[in-house]
Design brief:
Strand order of the largest sheet: 1-2-3-4-5-6-7-8-9-10-11-12-13-14-15-16
CATH class of one domain: Mainly Beta
Shape: globular
Strand content: over 45%
Order of helices and strands: HEEEEEHEEEEHEEEEEEE
Oligomer: single chain
Helix content: under 10%
Largest sheet: 16 strands, antiparallel, barrel
Number of strands: 16
Radius of gyration: 21 Å
């Protein structure tokens, strides 16, 4: 797969015909998305309530050619009183390639799982699923590399994407010189991903989407534990539209992780399910169940229940209230989340 990706990247300039070239004079589409809110937590020891600024996202998109687009996404996040800027995505997309293929190269959110490639403020819920935190890291899984996607010539819709990426390990906190760095668990170094996605129309008012994901590579603990990882995932979305502006949606995702280390093999799994009902285009009520094992020999388990109410005031302004009860720790948390934005910025629809 690595050689195939390199071959495509070397050949793609010849697929962009000079006869099709157009001088691109339009300014890029620039958008700003902000996220803020109130977090309340309660456990057996204490209660806390904090106003938080979750971050700012700046995105610029523009056509480079009729068959090529560029995307830049920069995120600003507040950490211990200091604003940090990170390049979340910076990639070029080549479209209309031979054999119904497309290429993306640069830095990108990896297309593993159903929601990792979608920026979190566009999720149907605010609390990150436990399997994503435990298996993919504290932040979204992104990498520097390239991917090829192919729309297979079948009687039904089936898209396949394969990629090769590199990613440094995520470090926790500040470290003095000579101190050992602590990395959260996630894929790191060089890793490969594979994603299959299909969609079926069940009736005029219902649709089924299914997806399968695979990942192979090293983990962020490779230098310490020499562990290699294999991951697999499956997801399903079922949608029903009782009327023009109402919708019922069921989303379920399962992940499996296998870590191979010198002492042996550790296996973990997790899942979450979300069900949401939109009585009209402005409101949605939903519930989510979360379960995940940790990716280590201790194999701790975490599960939780969430209730979610979202008010979509406009396409670029929403308010969400979310309550979560964690079963093992018997702790409660409440979240009031506000997302607001300006500009033509859009993400893949949920």
């Amino acid at each position: 797969m690595k050689r195939l990706l390199i071959l495509f990247l070397c050949l793609f300039p010849f697929f962009i015909s000079a006869a099709d070239s157009t001088i691109i004079t339009a300014l890029p589409d620039i958008s700003f998305i902000g996220e803020t809110g109130l977090i309340m937590t309660q456990n057996s020891d204490e209660k806390n309530a904090d106003l938080v600024f979750n971050g700012l996202e700046i995105q610029a998109q523009s056509a480079l050619h009729p068959n090529a687009d560029a995307t830049f996404v920069v995120g600003a996040h507040l950490h211990e009183g200091t604003v940090h800027f990170d390049v979340e995505e910076a990639f070029v997309s080549f479209k209309s390639m031979p054999l119904n293929t497309g290429i993306k190269t640069g830095r990108k959110l990896t297309n593993f799982g159903r929601i990792n490639y979608i920026h979190s403020h566009e999720w149907l819920f605010t609390g990150k699923p436990f399997i994503y935190s435990n298996f993919l890291g504290e932040h979204a899984l992104m990498g520097d590399g390239a991917s090829i996607d192919i729309l297979l010539p079948l009687p039904f819709f089936l898209n396949v994407e394969a990629g090769i990426w590199t990613k440094p390990a995520e470090e926790h906190g500040e470290h003095e010189e000579g101190e050992e760095h602590h990395h959260s668990f996630s894929p790191a170094g060089e890793f490969y991903n594979l994603r299959l996605w299909s969609s079926f129309e069940i009736s005029e008012a219902s649709e089924l989407e299914v997806g399968f994901s695979g990942l192979k590579g090293n983990s962020s603990h490779y230098l310490e534990h020499m562990d290699r990882i294999n991951m697999a995932g499956a997801d399903l979305i079922f949608k029903i539209w009782p009327s023009a502006f109402s919708r019922i949606l069921l989303l379920t995702e399962v992940m499996y992780l296998k870590r191979e280390v010198p002492p042996g093999i550790f296996e973990s799994w997790g899942m979450y399910s979300f069900i949401g009902y939109k009585p009209d285009k402005h409101w949605e009520i939903g519930g989510k169940y979360d379960y995940s094992e940790t990716p280590g020999p201790e194999k701790e388990k975490t599960s939780g229940l969430s209730a979610i109410v979202t008010n979509y005031i406009t396409e670029s302004f929403r308010i969400r209230a979310e309550y979560t009860y964690t079963l093992e720790s018997k702790s409660h948390s409440g979240l009031l989340n506000i997302v607001f934005g300006i500009g033509p910025h859009t993400h893949p629809l949920q």
